[in-house]
Amino acid sequence: MIMDFEQDLISDLPQSIIETILIKLPIRDAVRTSILSSRWRYKWATLTQLAFDDNCVSLCNDRAIVENNLSNFITRCLFLHDGPIHKFSLSTSYLQFSYDIDQWLLFLSRKDIKELVLELGEGEWFRAPSFLFSCKNLTHLELVRCELDPPPCFKGFFRLKYLNLQQVLIPPDDIECLIASCPLLESLTLSYFDSLELTVSAPNLKYLILEGEFKDISLVNTPLLVFISVAMYMTDDIADDIAEHFEQSSSYNFNKFLGGVPQLEKLIGHIYFTKYLSIGNHEGCIPITYHQLKFIELYQVSFDDMKEVLVVLQLIVNSPNLQELQISGSFNSSAATQQAPGLDFWEKRCFIDCTMGRLKTIKMTDVSGVPHEMKLIKFLLEHSPSLETMSIAPSSYLTEGRLNMLIDLVSFRRASTRASIIFIHEQI
Amino acid sequence: MSSPEEKTLILKSSDNEEFLVKESVAVQCITIKNLVEDGCDLDAIPLLNVDSKNLAWIIEFMEKYADSTSTDAEKKDFDTEFVKKPFNDVLGLILAANYLNFPALMDVMCDACANEMKLWSVEQVREKFHIQNDYTEEEEKAVRAENFWAFE
User: ipTM score of the complex?
Assistant: First the structure.
């Protein structure tokens, strides 16, 4: 292409290309292109994606001034905007609830908004106005530090596929209704909720991420889930309460949570997750085989608790196509030297006969060498004919007993001739 | 490992140079994908708006992105090096990516363009793009007043 030296390189390009470039500029710079030439005056004004943050305005020490300037910036920007707005995001530590935000949502609900991200600052909670619930075409909603109060007549976001709520105050019944009223929901993330009891019914849900204090979670209609990640915090009081409460119930948390997810491909559990799953009666065997489950990561597993170990074992044994396994232990010094009860369940038929034919990589971390933990390692080595690597990292709290652990490890039989065991030894 | 039925396409640049590309790689360009799906049985696919210089780069990019063994980090490093081209070439690649409808390349090149623009003053933007400022003094004042909140 021979370029005429004087020829304008950009102003004649299709609006779609100009828009793609302008969207990648900070909104303030995009607006400044209005000064380039008369043709550029309103090229920015038809952008369908707007992203605002604290960088839109100059910062100074006076918080009130910054808040005011930012609010003004956004209002002016929206006022001059022309055409639909499909994506709006606001991420600020300065703005909290204000009637301005109410107004912006009303404006956006009339502009065919599809993706909305609101990340507000600490302080007074923000009560979302009913205008949020008039954004009928939302496909993507992300709220941080807000309060939600769906009006009684609210029927749901019929197009919503992605929902992410973090530190959001919402009555528990309403959150269940909200999820159930979004039939196309594919991805759900809930973080930093307190004492939430939740039943999830979402026929199209594929990705579920939960983090917080949950009293009870059951998945009743989630047949398409492929990815689950749960970080479950529990104070000790709650843990005891729950254990007591559930001793009387006949349901097994494992089944309540993982009983209806046959398509699961990856499972990640943090903190009290395995403890939570272990609560309840486990007379019956697990009815479901996870044929697609390839990756399991479980953290803070308490190997002193026989029930937790059983949960881990049942998960592994019911996942014939498992490829990678990562388990980190939870150190409890008082139990390290005691005889662990219930070592005989290892001899059960269903465990002895199983073969983990695809398991290639195992990573055990924070290993403290308690009997059930060593039994698990032995079990894995004996039943994984395709194993390539097992890495073992002892807990940094374990000062004595490393040699015994190594002695045991060396004596274990391996089903795989290619398996190498890597003992990660850091100088204490 | 390529299967025996792995098809190779011939892509012809506007200056008549021919390039061999695997079909599975070339269909990252939706324009080419549509041609193939519509049953185009020409010996070579003519790309009238892409010269050989740009086409060679585009093929380099396509092959990197089609490689399933390259990690995200490797792709990022590749992108960083790939965009280190004279600005006119960056624009040329944006146009070619648009013509071929190649979203990944479009994204990377527009990112590079925007990253350059962020560093420039209004004058520099006009200069680099050869934009003729046709505002009168009054008009320019009016625009600055309209958007004063962005110029603060």
Answer: 0.90
